[in-house]
# Entry
Amino acid sequence: MEEAGDYNAAVEFFSKQLEAARANRDRAAEGEACFRLGRTYVVVQQAVKAIQFLDEYERIAIELEDLTGHGKASAALAAAHQSLGDDDKAVEFLTNYLEISAKTENLQAQGESCSALGVIYNSRGEFDKSVEMFEKNFEIARSNVSSGQANTSLVDKSRVYLGIARGNQLRGKVFMHINTDISELINMKKNPVK
# Structure
């Protein structure tokens, strides 16, 4: 239902799954149902509702000492907060996701979190942080390809993101020079760096 785009039916099914898990006192199944409900609510632009279920999923994952689940919760909560325009909370959850994925040695998750952080930092004009995240993402992508876990298109995509971030970083420095020292900019144009 979810793959077919019938989100109302998916919500109904996941709600029944949650009821059954609670009735059976199956915390793992309850957490999975909360995760699926939360993720579906993010897709249908109901982030406030999504956060309620994702917070519950995170609590269950912590209770069950499920690091992978805790990481999934952090990633989903970041997406929900970002859809609400709360980039500070999104950064907090993505940073947590990055830390957890490093502990679980999940390179794909590390790459996803670095890329998402890079995008947020770039949109905020924090270009140095953006470049740092995209550089990490690029190195992770190269590791994934060399270990056979991904194809070269992942490296190509990561390289493009890194190039854009570096371009924005350079553009920011040029604008800073324009705003602070026009004579230095003219000198820079006369004597380009080789």
Notes: DSSP finds nine helices and no strands in the chain. The chain has a mean pLDDT of 90. The domain at 1-105 is CATH 1.25.40.10 (Serine Threonine Protein Phosphatase 5, Tetratricopeptide repeat). Residues 146 and 152 are 9 Å apart (CA to CA).
